[in-house]
């Protein structure tokens, strides 16, 4: 029986046989959310969900995740506020790969500290999907929900966690179906993918609190306008990036040397290639007007008309 209901029953049955406590890193994305809820259904309070607020998230994202896990699903759940540590690690870092490395290393440190203080844990749960498994060169197992191996994700050896990957035989659309079966709120099921290093890769040059504010607020406006226009679900990702370039504007009768915001909206099937979205002129106008009206520092709004390749989806 290959229905997703049957998958849920089978997975819950298999997971309920494991011994010890499970630590699941929750990002707010659909994959880690579904992995955590599936395991929670199987072992209840032996699951601990941890969400690391790195200060690089979308607007209100941290609060929404906490509400879903703690209030909706009553999962053992901790939100770790670590924004200052991540920003400190990013100070003076402008190179795209160096930024990714700084965020990744800080994540491992914060996660390991949490595991040490709140352990012992026997398992680390991850929302790995089948395409991730293929990409990493590990072959598909015999429909096994549980696969254990050591030392993934750059975590230190002393943690000695076995890995639990309940979604490793599934594709994204199957995970969406399971999310609906488990009662995951619609806004999470629909929400666009978001990169692990977060807004750090949507800010060109050094990540500063001022640029974070612009990227976060402008991105929320882009998402809101697409939702209002009824096209949010038709696109793969939609956001606004910002760098250090400035352009002269005029506000009232004052000259203002403000930021340039780059709006990026793309269509894609698998993120390997992507095409810029032909938004209507009315939608583009609404995005532009709202961004310049609502964010004081922004004078110019541009629309990114490069596809992947040769561009990538994220600017960094
Ligand atoms: P690019 O920019 O390479 O992105 O065209 C392809 C897709 O991957 C996402 N992305 C990431 N996701 N960690 C992630 O979890 C990352 O470091 C990362 N970098 C890019 C990006 O949002 C797009 O959907």
Features:
316 residues, alpha/beta, Rossmann fold, GMP Synthetase, Chain A, domain 3, 2 domains, 5-stranded parallel beta sheet, 4-stranded mixed beta sheet, globular, binds xanthosine-5'-monophosphate, ATP-binding, GMP biosynthesis, GMP synthase activity
Bound molecules: xanthosine-5'-monophosphate
Summarize the helix and strand pattern as letters: HEHEHEHHEHEHHHEEEHE
Q: What structural category arises from helix and sheet content?
A: alpha/beta
* Low confidence ranges: 139-144, 147-152
Per CATH, what is the topology of the largest domain?
Rossmann fold
Counting H and I runs of at least 4 residues, what is the number of helices?
A: 10
Q: Number of folding domains? A: 2
How large is the share of residues in beta strands? 15-25%
Summarize the topology:
Layout: H1 4-15, E1 22-25, H2 30-43, E2 47-53, H3 61-72, E3 77-81, H4 83-90, H5 96-118, E4 123-125, H6 130-135, E5 162-164, H7 172-182, H8 186-190, H9 209-228, E6 237-251, E7 254-267, E8 275-276, H10 281-294, E9 298-303
Parallel strand pairs: 1-2, 1-4, 2-3, 4-5, 7-9
Antiparallel strand pairs: 6-7, 7-8
Helix pairs in contact: 1-2, 2-7, 4-5, 9-10
The structure holds xanthosine-5'-monophosphate.
């Amino acid at each position: 029986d290959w229905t997703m209901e049957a998958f849920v029953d089978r997975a819950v049955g298999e997971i309920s046989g494991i011994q010890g406590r499970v630590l699941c890193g929750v990002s707010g994305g659909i994959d880690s959310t579904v992995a955590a809820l599936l395991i929670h259904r199987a072992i209840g309070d032996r699951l601990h969900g941890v969400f690391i607020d790195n200060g690089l998230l979308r607007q209100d994202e941290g609060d929404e995740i906490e509400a879903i896990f703690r209030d909706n699903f009553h999962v053992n759940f901790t939100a770790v506020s670590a924004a200052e540590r991540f920003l400190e690690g990013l100070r003076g870092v402008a190179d795209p790969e160096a930024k990714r490395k700084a965020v990744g290393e800080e994540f491992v440190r914060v996660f390991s500290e949490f595991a040490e203080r709140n352990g012992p844990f026997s398992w680390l749960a991850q929302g790995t999907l089948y395409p991730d498994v293929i990409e990493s060169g590990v072959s598909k197992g015999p429909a096994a929900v549980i696969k254990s191996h050591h030392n993934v994700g750059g975590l230190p050896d002393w943690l000695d966690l076995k890995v639990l990957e309940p979604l490793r035989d599934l594709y994204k659309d199957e995970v969406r179906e399971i999310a609906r079966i488990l009662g995951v709120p619609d806004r999470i099921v629909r929400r666009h993918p978001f990169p692990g290093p977060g807004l750090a890769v949507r800010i060109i040059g050094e990540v500063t609190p001022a640029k974070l504010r612009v990227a976060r607020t402008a991105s929320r406006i882009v998402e809101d306008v697409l939702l209002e226009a009824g096209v949010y679900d038709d696109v793969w990702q939609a956001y606004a990036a910002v760098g250090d370039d400035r352009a002269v504007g005029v506000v009232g009768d004052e000259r203002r040397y403000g930021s340039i915001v780059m709006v990026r909206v793309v269509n894609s099937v698998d993120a390997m290639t992507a095409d810029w979205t032909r938004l209507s002129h009315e939608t583009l106008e609404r995005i532009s007007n709202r961004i310049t009206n609502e964010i004081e520092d922004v004078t110019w709004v541009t629309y990114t008309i490069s596809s992947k390749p040769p561009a990538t989806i994220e600017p960094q």
